[in-house]
Amino acid sequence: MSDDRTIRIALAGGGAFGAKHAAALKRIKGVEVAAVVSDTLDNARAFAAEQGVGRGVGTLEEVLAMDEIDAVILATPTPMHAAQTLACLDAGKHVQVEIPLASSLEDAEACLEAQQRTGLVAMVGHTRRFNPSHQWVRQRIRAGEYRIQQMDVQTYFFRRSNLNALGQARSWTDHLLWHHAAHTVDLFAYQTGSPIVQANAIQGPIHPELGIAMDMSIQLRAENGAICTLSLSFNNDGPLGTFFRYIGDTGTYVARYDDLVTAKDEPIDVTGIDVSLDGIELQDREFVAAIREGREPNASIAQVMPCYRTLAALEQQLNAFTAS
Predict the structure, then answer these.
(1) Residue 211 has pLDDT above 90, yes or no
(2) What is the mean pLDDT of residues 27-45?
(3) Taking the domains of the chain in order of start, what are their residue ranges?
């Protein structure tokens, strides 16, 4: 693809993360958000007008039939991710799908096969790979200045009713394992540079209405000996979000989204790590760059597949215990 040609992207999903991508893409030179898809045509038009991008389109199928669209970013409900990723690839469109790629290993493997068959850029929104806070730690690791001994991670939300990040009613149910644990499982292997060789999980009671476990604990061990302890909850009434504690041989650091502090809560300046402090923008920049350069992106489907294989193994453990 010509380096100076405008890349026209369609954005599917008019929610909180769709808005994050719309804002990020406007900051990337040579990119146009040409079309927006949401749950209804009216909502798509309203979102496009509100964000000042593209035009509202009724369905993803209409977008995939447009020759002028080069790529699609999927910020849609989790149950749609795999099928929509396959549809984009089969239509000849590069695709970035928000995390998680799928909610089953079978669907994730089908997406990998489609990417390998088409040769298109296919990337998953594993944003922690791009957050400057985590990049700072990775740079020290790659320079041989730091070795992770343990990661202690807390992923906490208060979601006893089926609401999204904006506090609005959700038409689908979120999942601690296939969505929220995916961030940490992938990041742990990525940062240690070592495959996960042992994984254990336990979960609390199943919510009678939502049908999901509201609390979960996961243990991981990498081949190089590093370990990870991950606690997840939809019952925690604050503080909310994910907090990563890196315990290493030369220091301890705590990452909170794009912020990083020492064990003594001293801020670490990460402003010079990349061109932006916005992990979503950096993720989108990588997607666009991979399309322009005709290369595999960081967080490609192939690169994140070990994460989904680990999640499937953990799910088998949880199901076997529930059945016993």
Answers:
(1) no
(2) 96
(3) 7-127+279-298, 128-275+309-323
